[in-house]
Structures are given as structure tokens and as C-alpha cells.
Amino acid sequence: MTISRGDLRTDDPALNTEPELTAWLHLFHTPRLGPRTIQKLLVEFDSAKKIIAHAHELPGETLRASLLEPDEQAIEADLEWLNNQADHHIISLADPLYPELLKQIDDPPMLLFVIGNPLTLSLPQLGVVGSRNPTVSGTETAHAFARELSVAGLCITSGLAIGIDAAAHAGALQASASTIAVTGCGPDRIYPARHRGLAEAIREKGAVISEYPLGMEPHAANFPRRNRIISGLSCGVLVIEAATRSGSLITARLATEQGREVFAIPGSIHNPLSRGCHKLLRDGACLVETSMDIVQELGPILGFAANTTEFQGESIQPAENQTEQGLITCIDYDPVDMDTLISRSGLTPERVSAMLSALEIQGCIAALPGGRYCRT
């Protein structure tokens, strides 16, 4: 069951007052009271405050007892957190700031704790997810795609994790664009701790959000639920490097169930992190080679022109001369060593070494451990 703005009457100012927010926090801290039950109660009683007022009429002795004995300490802590910083916000399902796309999923969070600008939650978004231990090429791809898609008008949404998530956030920030981080812990926690600086930068340009209460640690079970918010906020989800058993594929599955587009970037058949993306492609995900592929797919849905004359995307420039171009043809997307390149090209070791340096500076190839190279 889903609810619409009409069901909730979110344009009614009475639904967004502090007493109403306090009532929402009352519901939020009631044990065993989930989003689906609250959705049904809202249709019947119109507001959280009315649900509390009629708590004694509700079926279920345990539920009635919980509602009649609110966790005053937790509610007070939430309100103190809210009033501690000007950019702290608590957005309920009935708040007009609650993002409409997220409201349409089967189990939308009843509350969102937001640090930053809540208006960014309603921007057209693309979820970008992938491995926590990506290759150098995967990290660079995530950064470049996020930067280019931000320029095209999409807000990049991810999970603040190490690896692909962090690279995607950084790419959006480099474009001076909004980006949204959805966390799997309480709003007073940053996980991983090494990303405090990144979270602060995201806060300045976009928002860091959580559905979890203050003090919640980043338990493993929180992240699959976190993933449904990433996909729920987004018009589509892009997967960049993922193993066959990974949280990224969970996000992609949730996106499919929510009616969102799923995009995947293929990779080398020898790279274990390509297998998750290849599985998605076999299952019907959109194959992506450039950022324009995504812009063209989502442009009609989002109402902006996906026109190559308006947005070309940033691409790697070709090698500057035919000799270097010839060497590139000797370099695979799989790692290859120096001796093999000398043999394939017929050039001297000195010449190959000089051209490899030039091609690396141009961004055409990547140097790998062990004196090996691959095409990017």
C-alpha cells in the first residue's frame, strides 16, 4: 500500500507544526510500529497527532500500551538534535518536503533525519553504487561519470561508503553540484569515520540523511534497508564494479522492484568485480559506455533535453600521434607487461617506456603494480 499527498493532505499547515512533529517522534519510537501500519493509520486518522489521541481505540493490547507510554527521553533527544543546528531537519511522511519518489515505495521511512539542504531530496537523482574495493579504473570511472552526470543536471545519490560511493560523491562535488549521502547509522554518527570530511562537504552542497535514530551504530543489517532509500530517491541506479554477492546488486534489485531504471557498466571477463554488472546486463539492465547513455535514457522521464549538442560529456582525448595510437592497440583492458608490449609493437624498450608515460598522462592507460599496464 502506498499513500499520496492527497491521502495525507500535506498542504495543511497543521500537519507540519511542532506538536505534530512531536507526535511523529512518538510513533517513531513506538516498538513494533512499522511504516506500513502507520500508513494505514494515517489514512484513517489523517495525522500523527490524531493517531496518538485515538491510541486507546486501536486494536492490540501491546500496541496500545506502547503508544500510551511514549519514550519521552528519546523524543526530547531528537528535538534537541533538531534545534542544535540550523541545517538539522526531521522530515515526516506528512511533510511537504518529503520526496515524492521515496513516498511511492512499499515501505518508505516514516522519518528522515537530514543534515544539509532538504530541498535537494526532491531533485532528479541517480543512485551510483559499487564495490568497496574497486580497481583504480573503477574508481576513476565512478568519479568521471558522477562529475559528467552532475553537469547534465542529475543529483548523485550514494551511500558514503569507501570505494565507488566515495568516488561518486567526490565527482559530483568536483562539479560543484548537489550530492546526497544515505547512511546506515544514526544522524549523529558518520560511517566510515574516515569520511567525516567528505560528509561535511556533502552537507554543504547537498544532504546527509538517515532513517535511523540517534545513537544507532552501523550494524550490517542496516545497510540493505539503507539501500532501498538510495534506489527509492532515484530515477535510476548505476552499478560500477560489483561482485555477484554484494550490496550493490541488492540496490539494483530494489530499484527494479520500485520501477526504477538500472544501468551497469561492463568490464573485463577476468575481473571478479565485473561479474555482478554482467549478471545485471544479462537480466536486462541498460548497458552503459558513456554518461550520455544515461542522459538519453532518463532525459525524457525527467523532462530535460538529452541532446548531444547541449551535453557532450567529458571524454578522454585520443593519443596525439599515430605511433602512440599504434601502441594503444597493443594494450588490452586486461593487464599486460612491458616485455609483451615490446614484442607486440616491435619498438625499442626506450621508445615504449616514453610512450607509456605520455599515454598515462593523457589518461589513455593506467599503470598497475608489477610493471603492468591496461587500457582505461
For the structure shown, list the relevant keywords:
single chain; 376 residues; alpha/beta; Rossmann fold; Arc Repressor Mutant, subunit A; 3 domains; nine-stranded mixed β-sheet; three-stranded antiparallel β-sheet; 17 helices; 12 strands; 13% strand; disordered N terminus
Topology, element by element:
Blueprint: H1 5-8, H2 18-28, H3 35-45, H4 48-53, H5 61-68, H6 72-84, E1 88-92, H7 100-103, E2 111-116, E3 125-130, H8 136-151, E4 155-158, H9 164-174, E5 179-182, H10 196-205, E6 207-210, H11 222-233, E7 236-240, H12 247-257, E8 261-264, H13 275-282, E9 286-287, H14 291-302, H15 322-328, E10 336-337, H16 338-345, H17 349-362, E11 365-368, E12 372-375
Helix pairs in contact: 8-9, 9-10, 11-12
Structure, briefly:
By secondary structure, the protein is α/β, with parallel strands linked by helices. The chain contains 17 helices and 12 strands. α8 runs parallel beside α9.
Notes on the protein architecture:
This protein is an alpha/beta fold. It has helices at 5-8, 18-28, 35-45, 48-53, 61-68, 72-84, 100-103, 136-151, 164-174, 196-205, 222-233, 247-257, 275-282, 291-302, 322-328, 338-345, 349-362; strands at residues 88-92, 111-116, 125-130, 155-158, 179-182, 207-210, 236-240, 261-264, 286-287, 336-337, 365-368, 372-375. Strands 1-2-6-5-4-3-7-8-9 form a nine-stranded mixed β-sheet, with helices on both faces. The chain has a three-stranded antiparallel β-sheet with strand order 10-12-11. Helix 8 (136-151) runs parallel beside helix 9 (164-174) and helix 9 packs across helix 10.
